[in-house]
Amino acid sequence: MLEDGSHKFPLFYFFRRQEMSLKENITSVRTFFLWIPRESIIHKLHPITKIILMLSLGSSIFILSNPIKIFFILIISAILLIISRIPIKMIWKFILASTGMISACVIAWMLFSIEAGSTIYFEKYIEIIPNKWIWHIYITENTIFKSLLIGIKIISMILVTILFLTTMRDREFIYGLRKMHIPFPLCLATSLTFRAMYIFRQDYQTVKEAMMSRGVDFKTISIPKKIIQFSRLFIPILTLLFKRAQEMTLGVEARGIPLRGGKYSLYHDIPIKKIDYVFILSIFLILLLIFYLPLS
Amino acid sequence: MSIIDIKNFYWKYLGSKDYALKNINLKIEKGEFIGIMGPTGAGKSTLCLAIAGLIPWVLPGEIKGDVIIDGMNTRKYSMKDITKKVGIVFQDPEIQFIMMSVEDEIAIGLERMNLSREEMIKRVDWALDIVGMKEYKDVSPEELSGGQKQRVAIATMLAKQPEILVLDEPTSDLDPKGKMEVFSVISNLRKEFDTTIIMATHESEKILKFADKIIVLNKGNKILEDYPEKIFSKIDELKSIGIRPPQIIEVCNKLGCGTVLTIEEAEKVLNKKFSLKNKEHYQKIDFLKNNRKPVIEVQNVSYIYPNGFKALENVNLTIYEKDYIAIIGQNGSGKTTLAKHFNGILKPSNGRVLVYGMDTRKTPISEIAKKVGYCFQNPDHQIFSNSVEEEIAFGLKQIGLSKKEIEKKVSEILKIVGLEEYRYEDPSFLGKGQRQRLAVASILALEPKILVVDEPTTGQDYAMIKDLMNLLTNLNNKGNTIIIITHDMQIAAEYTKRIIIMRNGRIVADDTPLRIFSNLELLSENDLEAPQITQLSIRLGFIALNNEDFIKIIKGE
Amino acid sequence: MSQTEEVFKRGVSWMHIVTFAIATGVSAILAIYAVFAVPVAPFPGVSGLYFAAAIYVPLSLWLGMWGPLAGYFSCVILGFATTPFGPFSFVWSLCDFFEGLIPLIAFKLFKVDPELKMQRPGVTWALFGLLVLDLILGVVSYALTWSEVFLASIFLSLIIVILMGAANPKYWKSWIFYAIFGIIGGAFGSALFGIGTLVLGGFAPAEAFWVGFLGWFIGDVLVIGTIGTILMIALTPRIKRTPIYVRGWFS
Lengths: 296, 557, 251
What we know:
The complex is a heterotrimer. By secondary structure, chain A is mostly helical. Helices cover 61% and strands 10% of the residues of chain A. Chain A folds into two domains: 43-168 and 270-292, no CATH class; 178-253, no CATH class. In chain A, the strands form two sheets. A two-stranded antiparallel ribbon of chain A has the order 1-2. In chain A, β1 and β2 form a beta hairpin. In chain A, α3 (67-83) runs parallel beside α5, α6 (170-179) packs antiparallel against α7 (184-213) and α7 (184-213) crosses α8. Chain B is α/β, with parallel strands linked by helices. Chain B has three domains: 4-245, Rossmann fold; 247-284 and 530-557, no CATH class; 289-529, Rossmann fold. Helix content of chain B is 38%, strand content 22%. In chain B, α6 packs parallel to α7 (176-193) and α12 (263-273) crosses α22 (532-539). The mean pLDDT of chain B is 89. By secondary structure, chain C is mainly alpha-helical. In chain C, α1 packs across α3 and α8 runs antiparallel to α9. A two-stranded antiparallel sheet of chain C has the order 2-3.
């Protein structure tokens, strides 16, 4: 556990415990998302605003094919992260954790794609299987361009995702969906999905321990046996989960929540404030500007 | 008019061969507290579900007869209408949470009641206040203990202000403190709001204190309905169907003092009837450490979970051959964490654990599993196979026995646990008690010298508890070391020879049951309670741990 | 006294929604873990051993359309959580929708019982193993344009499937449909759509299509063929006896 409450291995960020220090009072909060509580404008935005922000930035990254324009979006995301007071070392950790994936994608683009160009920096034919599979490596300026483009897209999207997950709690996400009048069964299903992830993780741990108690050593057995034992692991887990599904259904029905129809008043009727409108408008304007910037 | 009127009610689950409820007739008046008791499979939960309207609206099956809730026939009114009158709390606190925070959990049921937001906020606060959970409003369910979750579940129902609250074994998964919390909330509800309470439970001592009437079910039939004192006076009948009567009542009945309901009453009556001066208390066989070999040595062990939670702190413990130990303490005290170190599932963060001299940090779990068998609380977590036979054979295959040896061993074990007739059955279709026995059997097959059983009695009826504890006692008599983790003080006192109390990751007491349960101050500090009979005996000037010893001492035998 | 009434809920109920949500949660966790455990470069979000696929097919055969939907949404969660796709995840995730949909349609249209019972377990498992290896050989030979080997592997797989049916004559339909649509069909459709959309979406070079397709297809065949089959054999009889089992499409 590191000082800011993050886990040493960012890959295992789901369900980690986060320390919230507000005015030196420390409370523990566990959330499916990566939520880091901070007093920032971004945190205070309405959940719908955050969802729109994420979707608009993400869509822009996907649509754009100019690396400079995507770089601007990366800058915007970074600025928003700074405003949200998310510790830089947190962001770096995720980027570092993703370097493997980013590098693999960039290098793979360079090694696999064939893009015509005016300058050939590298060309080689490698016979993997004679007369059957010949690997043609052909690196031109366009290959490098495309590779860097994919790299910058990935990094930008990672930043957008971190921004979204660190400034939003899972329950806020549900509030946002409800405010958007997403049908209630879908909203409840989303909440249950998050709950199921937690329960599954607990059950997985317990069942694995139970198998270990019967003499199964997952570390030393051969791969075929590992596959069989892992399959066995899922038998009680899935049996339990389906049993719980039946019981949870009783819990839902016992609250008298109708599946169809029925009017709902919202307990969390968070008002959309002026700042939210200003924010959404600003982001759209900036994105429009970026889209129509005459950059080649 | 009664608030609940059940007339000639039958219910058969879809796919089931027999009716789960047969010809139930029952009238419950407003404000009554009704206890529903019976062995596992008697139909208690089914009756709760029928009163809550979940039968027939949610569960498919065959129905006959009527359940009328405040004039509404549950077959004709929808769940929306029924849930305005009836709230239900289930046994498993985990499955009752569908939202991501305590207040959302309560509010979700209010949102479709066409209440204003202010009214909803008021009700949420009010409900949380009643159950004493107001400061946990923003907390997510994963942060709560079992008792807290159950209190929130009660608050969830309370917020709708139902006239009837049905509770299906709400305390069976809870520690003693959690149980008290739940009962205390329910008691307040009755006093303040005149809520009709229907509770299915195995906790005879607690239900005796609170219930106005008790209904006893067996195999789907209602066999008894009367005041608690009259029900519990039928001791032999209750025991024959698997209900454990309160110790005080059983003992006073056997001593010819009639039906006595409270410890105070029993003290008066027994003092009057018997001369209780200079009574020698029964000393259970003290463990003679010097003559027995240590089998598990826990040396300065601390354990920190990956999330930073320190579950064990500098624990030192030696377990000897043929020990019969109960580890007791509140939830979160470190009992299960400590027990998981015994078979190497968990490795100490500091210190070491030696099992027959093997350091668990350096020895593969498969080796330790040959010496230490661990039985989990929920048998469903450790049942992997399609048949009882395969399940028992699973562990034997891991250690490389031949087919013939496996078959022989399986037959032996099935006989020991009494599951021979279920040899080829799919375990998921066995009853809970049978699955628990299967879980124990699958561990026993490996012939571990040490057997750890986590909460062997949760949700079990008296007959099943007795069977299982007798099995463990026989194993101990044959030379096995038995370690149980339990919240059942009566079981710990009656069967075991050594008690370890844990609190906040440390061992706070390690002694004989006699010395532990006679130290009421120690128990109170750790939110524990001595068995009823022990509390009574202390008042009378001696110490007895079970009914038989108590009677012998009183009679001077 | 009222007459006996059979109460059998028809139509979609909370039971289906709750089960779908739980299935989605479980699949999402497996998907995320698989992508981190066995990634396939240069394809973000692709795993060489996609454990979640092992439960997509069984879920579809047990839960009807809720199964493919659980697969779809679990992949959307995977997309947002671990890949740079963003909203593109909504399109790409259809690959996992198809993985469950293909066997579901086949089983429902031809009214095949999903319960995989074995009359000759030893022979069946051996044939299964051969089928998995043969499928891998077939795809590799196609990628390498070894037409003779490819044709031979197709022929061999047909023989193996027929033999599996012959080894379990009472349940031949279940086994053959499961082999063809559950394993081959699901994995093929999923791999084709999955890698295809990545290439079309500009997240992978077209020249690497076969590398990606092979990795995806082989991984899914292995996982569904082993873990998925074990789950089908062990759990189908249990689930069929619960109200969770969907006999129709949605209920």
